[in-house]
Write a structure and sequence with these properties.
CATH topology of the domain at 54-196: Tetracycline Repressor, domain 2
Helix content: over 70%
CATH architecture of the domain at 54-196: Orthogonal Bundle
Number of strands: 0
Shape: elongated
Strand content: under 5%
Number of helices: 9
Largest sheet: none
Order of helices and strands: HHHHHHHHH
CATH superfamily of the domain at 54-196: Tetracycline Repressor, domain 2
Distance between the termini: 41 Å
Radius of gyration: 20 Å
Structural class: mainly alpha
Protein backbone atom coordinates (compact mmCIF):
# COMPACT_ATOMS: atom_id res chain seq x y z
CA UNK A 1 0.00 0.00 0.00
CA UNK A 2 1.38 3.41 -0.99
CA UNK A 3 1.77 6.30 1.48
CA UNK A 4 -1.14 8.08 -0.21
CA UNK A 5 -3.38 5.00 0.10
CA UNK A 6 -2.37 4.55 3.72
CA UNK A 7 -3.25 8.15 4.56
CA UNK A 8 -6.54 7.78 2.72
CA UNK A 9 -7.44 4.71 4.77
CA UNK A 10 -6.49 6.48 8.00
CA UNK A 11 -8.66 9.44 7.02
CA UNK A 12 -11.58 7.15 6.17
CA UNK A 13 -11.22 5.46 9.56
CA UNK A 14 -11.28 8.87 11.27
CA UNK A 15 -14.37 9.88 9.27
CA UNK A 16 -16.26 6.72 10.22
CA UNK A 17 -15.17 6.95 13.85
CA UNK A 18 -16.33 10.56 14.10
CA UNK A 19 -19.60 9.78 12.35
CA UNK A 20 -20.19 6.80 14.64
CA UNK A 21 -19.80 9.01 17.72
CA UNK A 22 -22.25 11.50 16.24
CA UNK A 23 -24.78 8.79 15.42
CA UNK A 24 -24.50 7.24 18.88
CA UNK A 25 -25.18 10.52 20.65
CA UNK A 26 -27.57 12.25 18.23
CA UNK A 27 -28.93 9.54 15.94
CA UNK A 28 -28.13 8.34 12.45
CA UNK A 29 -30.24 11.10 10.93
CA UNK A 30 -27.93 13.67 12.54
CA UNK A 31 -25.12 12.69 10.18
CA UNK A 32 -24.17 15.13 7.45
CA UNK A 33 -21.09 15.28 5.27
CA UNK A 34 -20.62 18.92 6.25
CA UNK A 35 -20.71 18.37 10.01
CA UNK A 36 -18.30 15.43 9.86
CA UNK A 37 -15.94 17.50 7.72
CA UNK A 38 -16.18 20.41 10.17
CA UNK A 39 -15.37 18.24 13.17
CA UNK A 40 -12.34 16.74 11.45
CA UNK A 41 -11.10 19.95 9.89
CA UNK A 42 -11.52 18.52 6.39
CA UNK A 43 -13.22 19.88 3.30
CA UNK A 44 -16.68 18.58 2.41
CA UNK A 45 -15.28 17.36 -0.89
CA UNK A 46 -12.54 15.49 0.97
CA UNK A 47 -15.11 13.61 3.04
CA UNK A 48 -17.42 13.06 0.07
CA UNK A 49 -14.62 11.61 -2.04
CA UNK A 50 -14.03 8.93 0.59
CA UNK A 51 -17.57 8.01 1.64
CA UNK A 52 -19.80 9.17 -1.19
CA UNK A 53 -23.33 10.11 -0.17
CA UNK A 54 -24.77 10.74 3.29
CA UNK A 55 -26.62 7.43 3.00
CA UNK A 56 -23.36 5.62 2.29
CA UNK A 57 -21.81 7.29 5.34
CA UNK A 58 -24.71 6.02 7.47
CA UNK A 59 -24.16 2.53 6.05
CA UNK A 60 -20.44 2.66 6.90
CA UNK A 61 -21.31 3.69 10.44
CA UNK A 62 -23.71 0.77 10.87
CA UNK A 63 -21.15 -1.67 9.48
CA UNK A 64 -18.46 -0.38 11.83
CA UNK A 65 -20.80 -0.42 14.83
CA UNK A 66 -21.77 -4.00 14.03
CA UNK A 67 -18.11 -5.01 13.62
CA UNK A 68 -17.14 -3.54 17.00
CA UNK A 69 -20.17 -5.06 18.68
CA UNK A 70 -19.37 -8.53 17.34
CA UNK A 71 -15.73 -8.24 18.38
CA UNK A 72 -16.61 -7.06 21.88
CA UNK A 73 -19.51 -9.42 22.60
CA UNK A 74 -19.95 -12.37 20.26
CA UNK A 75 -16.35 -13.33 19.50
CA UNK A 76 -15.22 -13.62 23.16
CA UNK A 77 -18.42 -15.46 24.11
CA UNK A 78 -17.85 -18.05 21.39
CA UNK A 79 -14.61 -19.05 23.13
CA UNK A 80 -16.68 -20.33 26.07
CA UNK A 81 -18.01 -23.89 26.17
CA UNK A 82 -21.19 -24.49 24.22
CA UNK A 83 -24.38 -24.11 26.24
CA UNK A 84 -25.03 -22.12 29.39
CA UNK A 85 -21.41 -20.91 29.83
CA UNK A 86 -21.59 -19.35 26.37
CA UNK A 87 -25.06 -17.91 26.96
CA UNK A 88 -23.96 -16.36 30.25
CA UNK A 89 -20.87 -14.97 28.54
CA UNK A 90 -23.03 -13.33 25.87
CA UNK A 91 -25.08 -11.47 28.46
CA UNK A 92 -22.04 -10.62 30.58
CA UNK A 93 -20.12 -9.25 27.60
CA UNK A 94 -23.19 -7.38 26.37
CA UNK A 95 -23.69 -5.62 29.70
CA UNK A 96 -19.96 -4.97 30.05
CA UNK A 97 -19.86 -3.32 26.64
CA UNK A 98 -22.90 -1.27 27.61
CA UNK A 99 -21.02 -0.02 30.68
CA UNK A 100 -18.01 1.02 28.59
CA UNK A 101 -19.66 2.16 25.37
CA UNK A 102 -23.44 2.38 25.10
CA UNK A 103 -24.30 3.99 28.45
CA UNK A 104 -21.77 6.83 28.01
CA UNK A 105 -22.31 7.28 24.25
CA UNK A 106 -25.67 5.78 23.29
CA UNK A 107 -26.74 2.55 21.62
CA UNK A 108 -27.24 2.75 17.86
CA UNK A 109 -29.29 -0.46 17.83
CA UNK A 110 -31.67 0.70 20.58
CA UNK A 111 -32.02 4.31 19.46
CA UNK A 112 -32.02 3.40 15.78
CA UNK A 113 -34.95 1.02 16.24
CA UNK A 114 -37.12 3.95 17.33
CA UNK A 115 -35.54 6.41 14.91
CA UNK A 116 -36.29 4.18 11.92
CA UNK A 117 -39.42 2.34 13.01
CA UNK A 118 -41.56 4.35 10.58
CA UNK A 119 -38.98 4.92 7.84
CA UNK A 120 -38.12 2.96 4.72
CA UNK A 121 -34.91 2.61 2.78
CA UNK A 122 -31.46 1.00 2.79
CA UNK A 123 -30.36 2.44 6.14
CA UNK A 124 -33.39 0.99 7.90
CA UNK A 125 -32.79 -2.37 6.22
CA UNK A 126 -29.15 -2.43 7.34
CA UNK A 127 -30.13 -1.57 10.89
CA UNK A 128 -32.90 -4.16 10.86
CA UNK A 129 -30.51 -6.80 9.54
CA UNK A 130 -28.04 -6.14 12.36
CA UNK A 131 -30.72 -6.39 15.05
CA UNK A 132 -32.20 -9.55 13.52
CA UNK A 133 -28.79 -11.24 13.26
CA UNK A 134 -28.10 -10.48 16.91
CA UNK A 135 -31.51 -11.79 17.98
CA UNK A 136 -30.84 -14.95 15.93
CA UNK A 137 -27.47 -15.39 17.66
CA UNK A 138 -29.18 -15.15 21.05
CA UNK A 139 -31.85 -17.67 20.06
CA UNK A 140 -29.25 -20.06 18.64
CA UNK A 141 -27.20 -19.92 21.85
CA UNK A 142 -30.30 -20.56 23.97
CA UNK A 143 -31.12 -23.59 21.82
CA UNK A 144 -27.59 -24.89 22.32
CA UNK A 145 -27.99 -24.55 26.10
CA UNK A 146 -31.19 -26.58 25.87
CA UNK A 147 -29.48 -29.13 23.64
CA UNK A 148 -26.66 -29.50 26.16
CA UNK A 149 -29.15 -30.11 28.96
CA UNK A 150 -28.27 -26.91 30.80
CA UNK A 151 -31.73 -25.41 30.35
CA UNK A 152 -35.07 -27.19 30.63
CA UNK A 153 -36.17 -29.02 27.50
CA UNK A 154 -39.39 -26.98 27.29
CA UNK A 155 -37.51 -23.66 27.25
CA UNK A 156 -38.91 -21.39 24.54
CA UNK A 157 -35.71 -20.16 22.87
CA UNK A 158 -37.42 -17.36 20.98
CA UNK A 159 -39.10 -16.12 24.16
CA UNK A 160 -35.86 -16.13 26.17
CA UNK A 161 -34.02 -14.32 23.36
CA UNK A 162 -36.79 -11.71 23.41
CA UNK A 163 -36.46 -11.35 27.19
CA UNK A 164 -32.69 -10.92 26.92
CA UNK A 165 -33.13 -8.18 24.33
CA UNK A 166 -35.92 -6.51 26.33
CA UNK A 167 -33.80 -6.69 29.49
CA UNK A 168 -30.93 -4.89 27.78
CA UNK A 169 -33.20 -2.25 26.24
CA UNK A 170 -34.83 -1.55 29.60
CA UNK A 171 -31.45 -1.29 31.30
CA UNK A 172 -30.27 1.20 28.68
CA UNK A 173 -33.34 3.38 29.18
CA UNK A 174 -32.93 3.38 32.96
CA UNK A 175 -29.19 4.03 32.78
CA UNK A 176 -29.35 6.86 30.25
CA UNK A 177 -32.82 8.39 30.59
CA UNK A 178 -33.54 7.82 34.29
CA UNK A 179 -29.89 8.15 35.29
CA UNK A 180 -29.98 4.96 37.37
CA UNK A 181 -26.36 4.11 38.15
CA UNK A 182 -27.42 0.60 39.20
CA UNK A 183 -29.38 -0.19 36.03
CA UNK A 184 -26.81 -2.61 34.61
CA UNK A 185 -26.39 -4.29 37.99
CA UNK A 186 -30.15 -4.73 38.20
CA UNK A 187 -30.10 -6.19 34.70
CA UNK A 188 -27.43 -8.71 35.71
CA UNK A 189 -29.49 -9.78 38.73
CA UNK A 190 -32.61 -10.11 36.59
CA UNK A 191 -30.66 -12.25 34.13
CA UNK A 192 -29.65 -14.65 36.90
CA UNK A 193 -33.31 -15.03 37.90
CA UNK A 194 -34.37 -15.64 34.30
CA UNK A 195 -31.80 -18.41 33.97
CA UNK A 196 -32.55 -19.94 37.38
CA UNK A 197 -36.20 -20.29 36.39
CA UNK A 198 -35.20 -22.27 33.30
CA UNK A 199 -32.42 -24.46 34.66
CA UNK A 200 -32.73 -28.12 33.82
CA UNK A 201 -33.30 -30.45 36.76
CA UNK A 202 -31.47 -33.27 34.97
CA UNK A 203 -27.66 -33.51 34.67
CA UNK A 204 -26.21 -31.71 31.67
CA UNK A 205 -25.23 -33.99 28.83
CA UNK A 206 -22.26 -31.86 27.80
CA UNK A 207 -21.97 -33.57 24.43
CA UNK A 208 -19.91 -30.92 22.65
CA UNK A 209 -17.49 -28.16 23.64
Amino acid sequence: MSTTQSRSQLTLAAIVDTALSMAASDGLESLTIGEVAKRLGLSKSGVFSRVGSREQLQALVLEEYDRRFVQDVLVPALREPRGLPRLNALMHRWLERARRVEVPQGCIYCAGAFEYDDRVGPVRELLLDGVRRWRAALKRTVMQAVDEGHLAADTDAEQLAFEMDALFTGAMRDARFLGDARALQRAAHTWQRLIADRMSSSPARGRRA
